[in-house]
Amino acid sequence: xxxxxxxxxxxxxxxxxxxxxxxxxxxxxxxxxxxxxxxxxxxxxxxxxxxxxxxxxxxxxxxxxxxxxxxxxxxxxxxxxxxxxxxxxxxxxxxxxxxxxxxxxxxxxxxxxxxxxxxxxxxxxxxxxxxxxxxxxxxxxxxxxxxxxxxxxxxxxxxxxxxxxxxxxxxxxxxxxxxxxxxxxxxxxxxxxxxxxxxxxx
Length: 202
What we know:
- This protein has helices at residues 18-26, 34-39, 46-53, 59-62, 68-80, 99-110, 121-134, 138-142, 153-164, 167-177, 186-198.
- Helix content is 53%, strand content 0%.
- By secondary structure, it is an all-alpha fold.
C-alpha cells in the first residue's frame, strides 16, 4: 500500500517581498571599517584583497600550530649539515602593496579608548549613601543595615573605587556635595580618580 503524500496548499503572500528577502540572505553585511572599505577592490576576490592589505583570510593558515615531528626533523637536518641551513628554508617575504591598511588597523587597535562603563543608578545611590554616612570607613559600611547582600568591607571598597574611577559619575557626586573646586577640570578629576583606584592598600 502506497503512502499518500500530503501537499500543503501553496499560498502567495502579498506582504512578503521575496526579492528583498533573497538579497538580505545573500548579503554578507556592510563593512563599517572606513580604511578597509576605501582599499577594497570589488573586481578581486576577498582572499586577494586581504592578501594585498597584509591581512589574513584564514588565521589557522597564518598562525600554524607547532609540529613536534617537523621541529625534530629540522634539528636533525641541522646536525647532519654541520649547522648549515638548507636553501629551502630561507624564504623571501614580500611586502604587500597595501600594507598601510594593516598598519592603520593596528594603530587604531592600540589607540586609547574612552571609558564608557557606568554603574547602575541603584548602585550609585547606595555608594553615595555609604560615602555620605561613613566617609572611607569601609568596616563600618559592612555593618550598615542597608547592606542587604552582606558584602564584606573589601567588596564595598572595590565598589567605591570603581565608582571613583568613573569621572562623570564621581564628578557629579562631588559637585552635588560642593567638594569639587571650580577651577578643577575633567582631566584633573580623571588623574585623581586613577590615583585612588591605583592605591589599593590593605
